[in-house]
Each structure stands twice: as structure tokens, then as C-alpha cells.
Amino acid sequence: MKNGLARLLLGMLWLIQLLPLGLQAAIGRGIGRLLYALAGSRRKVALRNVELCLPALDAAAREALVREHFGWLGRSLVERGLLWYARPERLKRLIHVEGDIGLAERSAKPVMWLVPHFVALDVAGAATQLFQRKQVASIYQAQSNKVFDAAMRKGRLRYNQGQVFSRHETALPLVRAVRRGHVFFNLPDMDFGTKDAAFVPFCGVPAATLLAPARLARSLGMIVQPVLAELLPGGQGYRVRFLPPLEHFPGDDSDEAAAARMNRWIEEEVRRNPAQYLWVHRRFKTRPEGMPPLY
């Protein structure tokens, strides 16, 4: 993406966020239908992921689910402008928080928020800044376009002077931030290859799964609190749920066993809200040695 096109898209996001949320949602769903028709490679990835993870669904049900998913995905892209540019007062009215968001502020121990990749992931990030005072640290995947990358970084940190670290850095800056009192906003369910990962089941399929959540929680004595965000229909806004901390995580489990336990929890949430999980990510692109590719 060239810088001029990036600025144009960002300008469009700024304009669209001025509209009522219900109208933004309609625009997003329309873009989702367009993406379903045009983004053939991502559509195929999503269909394959659903086939692997939800094998009880027949072909028609898988297609219907992926069509619905692209509608939510389109909304998440369009409504990102709302998260980046809207007044905080407006966002506070639209984001409905459930559960104990104040745990991190009260805890004597450092806290890790475990936030899987549902399409409303950025809403969870906004909620952690708007509704509590602790600074947040997270791992960040840099964007190839510098204009868009700068806008994303600024948008994600606009309410809270937290820190984001490149996933290509060592863990040391993140550990230092946690020790200074930052809460770790951790995104645990992406395939980044075999480094610091193990193959553990995700919906019954071996998936390269990061061991960092277990290792950091163990080494820093962290409380691990799951956080889930979802888009609500039309103009109803968003729901962000701060769930009770995982009990004894990782406890006496090995790092690999703790990763498998984490994946089982994510599976449960995927089945609860399947259309909003990020199916377009190639979750199983890294395969155990000797096993054929799945895409």
C-alpha cells in the first residue's frame, strides 16, 4: 500500500466514524460482502479453518458461517476509525464492560490479560485504557506501510501512555515494563512458527502455540485474566468481558501442558461465538515435521 492510498483510507475512516454506529455497521457489512467475493485466498483460508475446527458442520453451514464472519470482519475494519478518532465519551457509551476490569488495579501481583483474536480485539484494547488506570504493554506486529503503522500505533495508545513492543524484539523490554507495573495485553493464538512454541491441539489439530504465556506467568508470578470482546448487532455497541482469572495457571503444568489448557479455553469461546473468531488467519500454517500442509 502506497502512502497516498493509506492517507486516503485513514481519511475515510475519520469521516465514517462521524456517522451513527448503526450506519457504520451497515457500511461494514457491505464491505464484508465485497471482501467475501473478492478476497478469494482469505475466503479459502477461512473455509478451511472452519472445516478443520468445526468438523460437525456440513459444507453449506461452513459457507454460511464464513459469510457471516466476513460481515463482522468488515465491520471491525470500518469501525476501527471509531476506536482511533471518536471522543472518549462516545466510546464509553458504546462499550459495555462486564466482569472485574479493576482486578489489575487492585492486584499486588502483575496481571496478564489473555485476549484471543476475535474481530473486536481492538475494542478490548480501548476498554483496557478507557475504564481503568493501569498502563498497558503489548506485543505489536509492525505494518508494512509506515503511514498506516503510525496511525495504528497512535490510535491504539491514544488513551493510555502504555508501550507496544515489536514481536521481533527480545522479551526483556516487556518484562521490564511488567515489573514497572504495566499490565500485559497478551494475544496468544497466532501462528508465528516454531520458535518458543510447541505443537499442541487446537480443536483437535496440532497448532504451533506460543509458550510465552505460561513462561511469563510462571517467572513473574502473574495472575492471568481472560478478556473477550465482541461486536453487538447494528448500533448496539460492543461487549467486553473480563472473566475470572484462570485458576493455578500454569501451576504445576509444564509449559506445553499449560499451552494446551489455554487452547482448550479458547476453543470453548470460539464455539460460543464462532462467527467472530478470526478465521482468515492461517492458524495451522506451521506443520509438525513430516506432516503435509493444510492450506
Q: Would you mind describing this structure in some detail?
A:
The structure is a single chain. This protein has one domain (about 5-275). The two termini are about 25 Å apart. It is α/β, with parallel strands linked by helices and about 300 residues long. It contains 12 helices and 9 strands. Helix 1 (about 5-15) packs parallel to helix 9, helix 2 packs across helix 4 (about 60-80) and helix 11 (about 210-220) packs across helix 12.
* Tally of helical runs: 12
- N-C termini distance: 25 Å
Give the count of structural domains: 1
Q: What is the arithmetic mean of pLDDT?
A: 93
The SSE order reads HHHHHHEHEHEHEHEEEHEEH
Q: Tell me, what's the shape?
A: globular
Strand content: 15-25%
Strand order of the largest sheet: 1-9-8-2-5-3-4
Low-confidence stretches: none
- Major β-sheet annotation: 7 strands, mixed
Could you tell me the radius of gyration in angstroms?
19 Å
Share in helix = 40-55%
* Total E-strand runs: 9
Topology:
Blueprint: H1 3-16, H2 21-38, H3 40-53, H4 59-78, H5 80-85, H6 88-94, E1 95-99, H7 103-106, E2 111-114, H8 121-130, E3 136-140, H9 146-156, E4 163-166, H10 172-179, E5 183-186, E6 197-202, E7 205-210, H11 212-220, E8 223-231, E9 238-242, H12 255-272
Parallel strand pairs: 1-9, 2-5, 2-8, 3-4, 3-5
Antiparallel strand pairs: 6-7, 8-9
Helix pairs in contact: 1-9, 2-4, 3-4, 11-12
